Amino acid sequence: MAEEPVLAERRGSRATDDADTGNTPALDFDEAEEEPRLKYQRLGCDVAELLGNNAATCLSVSDKILALGTHSGAVHVLDYIGNEVKRIEAHKGPVNEICFDEAVEYIASCSDDGTVVIQGFYTDEVTTFKYKRPIKSVALDPRYGSRKTREFVTGGLAGQLLLVSKGWLGNKDTILHSGEGPIQEIKWSGSLISWANDLGVKVYDTTIHQRIAYIERPRSSLRHDKLQCHMFWEGDSLLHIGWADCVKVARMRPVTASLGGQTDSKHSVQIVASFQMDYLIAGIAPFGEDICLLACALAKEANKTELEGTGAAEELNGAVPEEAPRPELKIVTWQNEEVASDALSIHGYEHYAATDYALAAWYPRRPRTPGAPEAAAGTSGRSTDFTKWWADGDEPLYYIISSKDVVVGRPRDGDDRVAWLLDHKRFDKALAVLDTNRGLKASTHEQVTQRYLEHLVSQRRFDEAAQVCSRLLKDNAAGWERWVYVFAQLRQLPALAPYIPTKEPRLRQTAYEMVLHSFLLSPADHPRLLDALLKWPPDLYSVPSLTQSIINRARGPGGDSKALLQAAAHLYQLQGRFDLALAILLRLQQPDVFDFVTAHSLLPLLKPSHVAALVRIDEVRAIRLLVDHHEEVTAATIVPALQAAEQEARSTGNEEEAGLWRKRIFYYLDWLFQKDANAGADFAGVQVELYADYDRGRLMAFLVSSQAYALEAAAELCEARGLVREQVFVLGRMGNSRQALQLIIARLADIPQAIEFVQMQRDDELWELLISLAIGSADLTGALLDHIGGYVDPLRLVQKIPVGLEIPRLRDRLVHIIADFRTQTSLREGCNTILHHDCLSLAQRLYLEVRHAVRQLHVREAGSGGSPDAWYMAEGGGLKRKPVDASSLPGPWGGHKLHVQPRQAAGQDSQQLPKVWVGLAGQAPVQAATDTARKPQGRRASGRRKTGEDAAPPLPSLILGRVEAQHS
Question: Contacts for 500-503 with beta carbons within 8 Å, 24 or more apart?
């Protein structure tokens, strides 16, 4: 449709005109008022010129064009902008009403001159109907262009409602109603025709050709002779009626009745809304779930009606004794709760009354939700629902007509709403509209952003402004950069930083660096600097430049903040300078330094001061880390570093701290020894002292396991600390067994340990020493009698017991010694028997292996006359042999060998015996001397296999080497 782009163009404009162009604002806004629902604009272009010397009387709206009737009798066809498309000079008197058919192919108009003119837009067909009395209203059949009957309804001062139809013999007038006064208004929708006269409104159904409803004229204290009824069909079911100061809404409900087998479809009428206003109604139309009314003040209108009677011409010219107020376009609910009210600045409104205005509306057809009007208003009596209930390009249009002016009102779109809300500083609502309307203009979005942020900044609500930036600027890189500079000038960049985008969009590097440098000023902002560095990609800013700025700031007042140093460490990491980052983390005693050291393999770079710092942070974790990586950082580095820390604490007089460091050295060496006994060998002597100080129970295990400590020093330490058992062990390792044994007897009086010690030394002289040392004491002698029986002959001890020495339980102990001796003797005999049997069994097994049958026999014979040696193969059990290639043989070059020595005959030199090399392929190496070099008999071998004596794997191959001497 050609008209729709025009509508779209008009949709974005507002009711603002200025005096220089002849236009004045159509609507005055009061800041205290509720948000308006409609926007207004005068119908311009040719309209002002057409009404310059004429007066508008009526207007009809279709979904394609407009038709404006004038006092002179002309009908002007206009587009939606106001350009005149066509002019119809059909009447000699004022045009009272204009209507279109549903397809907008025909237009009908009526006039006070008693004529009705119907003209086609796409044909030259013009039909004129003349009547004797003025015609006040006309309505075309919505299907006028498609039906052959070409019906329309008209009426006027004659008081008759005529249905005119075309038949075979010409046009036919059918009187549908008469006798109740002039016909004021006629509306046709679908199959229903409604009209108004002095008594009320009636509805006629063309389908059943019956009147189906009568709605009584509302009762009012006002005079009605000059107050016209206004009607508007919403679809085919709702009829809106405005009459004087009363409003009614009638719902047409279809009723199906079955009589005598025939179905009769009728309508019932229900008044679903009815209320009285405190102003006069000059027009009515629906507005979503509400009602739109063109209203005039009641008091002014009452004054006018009392002064009427001077003639119609005087009223037409607006000669009223007092200045009239501006008309209002109101939106009310079905419960008469006002939703919106706009006072209209109509040209010459001061001289107009309610009868001088008209309302023409174009309303989209849409289904109405049952019960929706009742739920549309809020509890406060004013609707708060701004839901868009129309489709784009299909919004309702409301034309307010006066003698010299035509103003069009339409619902405010999202852009209009945002502009109004911004003008009234209702930014929260403007943001809400912005979020719920995706089709807003880019300029509207920019306007909201600019004005709202300026408002917040002017009130120094910087945190809130920063949040709004992320909500409004979104992917607008230029907008972000602009507000970064604004916040920078106000020294409020720390508030904006968390919301600045780092990916989409990406700003220029200077913007990000400006933000980061702003964090350096105040120590309170240093945590924000660290947070930004951890979250932002490093390619957003110059890492070396920022690092230098941070280092310079760290040297100034307030530069020792933890967050600032952490930021420096992070930047050093980004540059790969891990040693500098490590130094900072150790200075800060950060727990994550252990992960940092491991992740970047920094253990070889540890300095002595670093080691001590690590242990200070978490001694358990540090020692475990150092022990687990002792190959990267050796004990030669760790122990001196810990000893230096111990010495430093001791030099300051802090013995408790020094003791703590010494204990840490012990833990390190102990864990290291458990990990690798040789890793801390250089500090074995220190470790002996530490075990003696902190864990004597484990000293013996260390002395036994380690070979690295100095024996003399260890012995002296054990003697000084009274560690007798450990001293005994060290003395024994030093070779001073006699002193050690004397120490056991003298200090410990522990005979079992003494016996164990002597047994370990494997020195028989020590047994004599032990006996001699124990004989001097009856208790030691008794203990020796209890334990020595398993090691030496008890008789040696008994013979040396001095005469007269009283030994407790001597008889029992002697009996026990004898019993132990007999038991040991029996055990030795049993072991000897078992050993002998095992030797025989193994010898038998060897014999069977040596005599095992072979599957193949390879024989090499010496060549004669200089010819090469020849190899032959004979299959097991066969006498024939066949030559083979020597290269394909297993045998002495890679297999296992068995040297076979034949029996030596009497008087025969052993050097003259024939020798042969036998290889058993796949068997274990065996060497033995046999009586003869012959194959075992097949039957005997088979018998052994049956009895299980020959349990060898599959038969091997036997290879015989070169015969070195002639034999038969």
Answer: 501/470, 501/475, 502/535, 502/536, 502/537, 502/540
Query: Is 78 strand, coil or helix?
Result: strand
Q: Which residue has the tokens 């002996």?
A: 688
139: left (phi over 0), alpha (psi -120 to 50) or beta: beta
Greatest CA separation found in the chain?
183
With CA atoms as reference, report the closest residue to 329 among 370, 296, 353, 354.
296
CA 523 to chain centre: 33
Q: Is the alpha carbon torsion for 355, 357, 363, 369 positive or negative?
A: negative
Q: How many CB atoms lie within 10 A of CB 812?
A: 12
Answer yes or no: is 927 within a domain: yes
Which residue is associated with the tokens 């540059």?
575
Which pair of structure tokens corresponds to residue 3? 């008209």
Do residues 245 and 278 lie in contact, with contact meaning Cβ atoms separated by under 8 Å?
yes
The string of DSSP codes covering 53-67 is SS-EEEEEE-SS-EE
Domain boundary among 679, 712, 727: 679
pLDDT at position 707, please? 86
Name the residue type at position 341. Answer: S
End-to-end CA distance of the chain: 129
Separation in Å, CA 145 to CA 117, 122, 154, 190, 228 = 15, 11, 17, 14, 30
Summarize pLDDT for 634-664 with one digit per residue, the tens: 988 899 999 998 898 888 888 888 889 999 9
Report which of 111, 99, 117 is spatially closest to residue 57, judged by C-alpha positions.
111
Nearest to 127 by CA among 102, 154, 103: 154
- Please check whether residue 549 is in contact with residue 521, taking contact to mean a CB–CB distance below 8 angstroms: no
Tokens of 529: 């600097």
Range of the domain at 615: 596-679
Cβ pair 450, 483 in contact under 8 A:
no
Rounded distance between C-alpha atoms, residue 529 and residue 516, angstroms: 6
Q: What is the pLDDT of residues 217-234, one digit of tens each?
A: 887 656 556 678 999 999
Domain count, the chain: 2
- 712 part of a folded domain: no
pLDDT tens-digit map of 887-943: 776 655 434 343 344 445 555 554 554 444 444 443 333 333 333 333 444 444 444
Q: Which of 619, 653, 679 is the last residue of a domain?
A: 679
Kind plus residue range of the DSSP H or E element containing 204: strand 200-205
